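Fold it.
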Amino acid sequence: MKHRSCIVFIFLIGSSTSALSQSFFNNLDTTLLGYTSLVPKQDSSFIISGSLWGSTGVLTSGIVDYSSTGDCIQHDTLEEPLVYLAGSKLLKRSEDYLIYALRNEVPPYDSEFRDIQLSCYTYSGDSLWTKIYGSSDQDVPAQVIELTDSGLFILGSTTGFGDPDGDFYLIKTDADGNLLWEKTYGGSSSELAYSVNLTKDGNYILSGHKLVTSPDNWDIHLIKIDPEGEVIWEKTYGGSDTDYGGLLFPQYDHNFIVYKNVDNGVIEVGHVDKLDGNGDLIWSKTFPYGSLSTFQYFPPFENPDGTIIVSCGGKNSENHLTPRVIKLDPTGDTIWTREYYTTPYFSSYMYDMKPALDGGYVMCGSAFNSDTVQCGWFFNTDCNGNEDNLYPTGAPCEEYDCTLYPIDASFTAGTTTIDIAAGDSVTFTNSSANPTSRVWNFGDGTMDYTDAVISHIYTTPGTYEVELIVFHGMCSDTSTVTVEVINSVGITESSGNGNITVYPNPNNGSFIIDIGEIGDGLLTVTDVLGRTVYELEFDNQQKIEMSDFSSGVYMVQLNLANGEIEVIGVVVER
């Protein structure tokens, strides 16, 4: 690890402060070629990983720690012989952060043999460990995430494992980067991975694009896996044009946002797709800002109020590339859009964007301060995407107002008692008002995302609370219905000496208990929760007619004066 001094060129200086007390900055750092990834820290400062030429002439990584006002705190460079670490990305953890990047074992920069390098650093910039993963061919990293067991998933693409044309490549490690297992996913065509995310049901989803027709017709490719990497489902979707990218993030409402680029051979346009939890399309929006409006290759994200932030590029009035940030409501409609630049006369690029702890946003990329000099570029905005150098500040945050879209969860069940022995299923009908999405939780560990009508089969007896959660952004409402699942095989036979008979059984709520001539005793009827719903002392022969019982399973027990006990099950289906 070596240290360099910071040389920061302040291109635009902000002096006003918004209602959130933000100090805005829009800075260029001339020591680096460009920035690719950032993480905010708890004290509102932030770390950026970027690329630069090291003293040995090898392109490598820089790690820069900036204050909340954009001033350099520390600037470190990693210089290892024959290592190419440009394009590195950061993963923030509670005690340290990870840098993942491409590594060339043999120079020059465009070598055909590359591996994935993962390096761990403290927040003070000290190196803890470095691991290398991959084959003897091309292995390119896409994203690293921390798992619920403190391990890591490293997703990339490989031509050295699986199909030589390229497959998704997933590595699982422990918290210290030690390899646990690695798997590839894909068929005979080429697949390129972009993101891996934890889903709301505890599984994971991989996304990217797949070649469906040679030479260049690609579609979005999604693979849902369990924590051990076993495939749950796999889907490819797209149109006749080339769909590429496929960055994805799971939403609060259990659905997914995919943003991608679509090229029809004349124009490239950014798209945002919303998919349900089964990977089926709910809606799709396009964002054609000029002849080139492709989305940037860093993940979009969801704000606490359910609104969505995405970024795309475009051409400004001077025909130079400029980044654009778009805020969407939960239905995909635009709330606002902002364009950012250092000067309209040179191109600017955005490589990463994260929500800041003070409610605004921090962004980084690269820009030019002349025709030839490319610099690292970083800036921040308020919660409405305004930076005081270009826009007025102090406006209140434009949060999504759920009261404008009242939702009401409601559904009905075709039956509330299911007999496994009869092969029964239950049909649920959704009658909710105003939802943008919904989640069915059947109470047996399974979930679904179908809108109107859905049937479900239970396999184990028990009492299940079926839950329908409907969403409009972060706003939600829940409705529940209890379903009793029984297995009538074997429970209608009397235990004991057979002195008790129930008929009809099953029944519609009206049935007769015949106890014959067996002497004195106590008759008790309990439901599946063990609650007594009927009790009677009897003397010798007696027939008891019981009516208006709700659906469910009941146990009839006779406790005879001589100590004998008789038990029989009763099934009520109303």
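The chain has a mean pLDDT of 80.
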